[in-house]
Write a structure and sequence with these properties.
Strand content: 5-15%
Helix content: 25-40%
Order of helices and strands: HHHEEEEEEEHHHHEEHHHHHHHHHHHH
Largest sheet: 4 strands, antiparallel
Number of helices: 19
Distance between the termini: 29 Å
Strand order of the largest sheet: 3-6-1-7
Length: 576
């Protein structure tokens, strides 16, 4: 966080932007917008019927169901140059492989062979379907690759129907075969490999992604009536950033492009909108990260960030700066939403490097993972992402070991914080603070704990998260109750100002997590008040600041969407 910048901005407030209409927010992808994403615009009348069909979908029960699959021939990353034809001549579009990853909520589907696809006319479409990952608790499918062939002209769209969870209808054959169930609809065709960057993108409604919980709880952006200022500002901030988000490169000392996990933040944005433009943007960032920021061992079993020294081995602890650049969540998102094997390779290789390094990270004179909450958070996120795709006993043992250390860490103090030496973590920010905590780093750690909890159901996490939320509300908040102290417990600087309120959007998901685990609606009331101040203070100077706002706030909205009946305050616009 830029402390000097924060102090010069203490007390500054900016008016909330007007509420975006749901249709333009959702369907910015329907036009041929630039790859860096233009500001969302109104849906054209010609796509109104498609919009209504896509937006009307609601979560299906965990049995037989269907969901519309929107195909958009937007060119992708591998579209060939158009052929030159004489004026007036026409040619049928070529058939290409289309692929997507279809997520499912826990318990919704256990057999990928029970996935079928129909085109816009209702005809069955041959496809290949295979599981990409399962939910560790219950072993149902978390995400499945679906690949098939389709032919669309450039700019054309089509809606297919994906059916799942029940055998196909009885056949109408001879009396001997009449009434016998038809074979499951997933035609196994090994030629249909993942093609996430092909000329046709296939996306699902945001309500489906939200119900699947594939990358954490979500609320579709078009359903967010509580914080319209967030929805407009987050889009405007990305589109108007100067220099542009994707002009930043790799930095081993300053604010790097993927700070706070840029691929994860951009995939969170896509999930909440479900459109092809945002999908392509998130996908491009995930590929850029792998190509520019990861270094693999010769056998590709291990991967670390390129800022780590080239002679690194697991016998030497990874640097703190490397830990925060190992982006397990973003690479997990990429695999679960595209099926790209390169994404899985990156997740597993980063996780293995970290697993083998844990002994040196935690076994020296100082436990490096408990030096700051952030160190433990990034390590736990990486191992949780690895376990989600490679559920080996040794990975689970390493992940549980980090959870054990985190639980014990909080219990060693009475505050509810994960107390540590603030001066040791960064002498320039605190000259003396032997026992303190960082609210924004604590939020990252709670996010990691919730990832761990989703995979294991560890009952201890409920108490840990509730205590952390209580500390934030009672002790780490500023005296004007509009923000959180940048550091809590620093003896030479109380940090009692709300100039860092833009960090609220990173921190308030802790209150959403506390609600999800305890079902106490008070946590949402606390979170909403601080989120209002955070939305007013959004600041999008660099990718770091955009990622910080986007990576967790969508999850907060997903947590609060679980309220059985939104309180009256939740019906008010944040701008009124």
């Amino acid at each position: 966080m830029d402390v000097q910048r924060a102090r010069t901005r203490a007390g500054a407030r900016r008016p909330l932007a007007a509420l975006l209409l749901a249709a333009p927010l959702f369907w910015a992808s329907c036009g041929r917008l630039p790859a860096r994403m233009a500001v969302a615009r109104r849906a054209e009348p010609s796509v109104r019927a498609v919009l209504e069909a896509h937006a009307a979908v609601r979560p299906a029960p965990p049995r037989a169901g269907s969901v519309p699959l929107l195909l958009v021939a937007d060119g992708g990353g591998s579209a060939p140059a158009p052929e030159k034809r004489p004026p007036g001549a026409s040619a049928a579009p070529a058939e290409v492989v289309v692929s997507t990853a279809v997520p499912f909520a826990p318990g919704a589907l256990r057999d990928a062979r029970l996935i079928r696809l129909r085109d816009g006319r209702g005809a069955a479409v041959p496809l290949r379907a295979k599981p990409l990952a399962v939910w560790p608790q219950g072993r149902s499918i978390r995400s499945a690759l679906v690949a098939f062939r389709a032919a669309l002209s450039p700019g054309e769209r089509a809606i297919y129907t994906l059916e799942y969870g029940a055998p196909a209808p009885p056949s109408q054959g001879t009396p001997a075969t009449q009434g016998a169930p038809v074979a499951p609809g997933a035609t196994l065709d090994e030629a249909l490999l993942p093609n996430p960057d092909g000329p046709i993108a296939a996306v699902l409604p945001p309500s489906w992604y939200a119900a699947s919980q594939v990358c954490g709880p979500q609320q579709p952006a078009m359903d967010d009536r509580r914080f319209p200022g967030f929805e407009s500002s987050i889009e405007r901030g990305l589109a108007r950033m100067t220099p542009a988000y994707d002009s930043y490169g790799v930095s081993c000392s300053g604010a790097h492009r993927t700070y706070y996990d840029g691929p994860h933040a951009l995939y969170q944005r896509f999930l909440r909108n479900g459109d092809a433009v945002r999908y392509r943007r998130a996908r491009a960032e995930a590929i850029w990260y792998r190509q520019n920021e990861l270094r693999f061992s010769p056998d590709r079993r291990l991967a670390i960030h390129v800022c780590e020294k080239e002679d690194w081995s697991p016998s030497r602890p990874l640097s703190w700066h490397t830990l925060r650049r190992m982006l397990g969540q973003g690479m997990l998102d990429d695999y679960l939403l595209t099926g790209d094997p390169a994404a899985k390779e990156a997740v597993v290789a980063m996780g293995e490097a970290l697993r083998l390094n844990l002994a040196t990270l935690t076994g020296g004179k100082e436990d490096a993972l408990r030096a700051t909450e952030r160190n433990m958070a990034w390590a736990m996120m990486t191992l949780a992402s690895t376990y989600a795709l490679d559920p080996r006993p040794d990975v689970l043992a390493a992940l549980r070991g980090l959870a054990d250390r985190t639980v014990a860490w909080q219990q060693q103090g009475a505050s509810g914080a994960f107390e540590h030496d603030l001066h040791r973590a960064d002498p320039s920010e605190c000259e003396r603070g032997p026992r303190g905590g960082s609210p924004f780093m604590t939020a990252l750690l709670v996010d990691a704990l919730m990832e761990y909890h989703a995979l294991t159901g560890d009952p201890r996490i409920r108490h840990v998260v509730a205590r952390a939320a209580g500390w934030l509300e009672e002790r780490a908040i500023t005296s004007d109750r509009r923000a959180f102290r940048y550091l809590w417990g620093c003896e030479t600087d109380a940090y009692d100002d709300s100039g860092t309120a833009d960090l609220n959007l990173l921190i308030v998901p802790v209150f959403g997590a506390a609600y999800a685990l305890t079902r106490d609606p008070r946590w949402i009331a606390v979170g909403d008040a601080l989120a209002d101040a955070g939305v007013q203070s959004m600041w999008m100077k660099q990718p770091k600041h955009w990622n910080q706002a986007m990576r967790g706030f969508g999850r907060y909205l997903g947590y609060r969407a679980q309220l059985p009946g939104p309180p009256a305050a939740a019906q008010r616009s944040a701008g009124r």
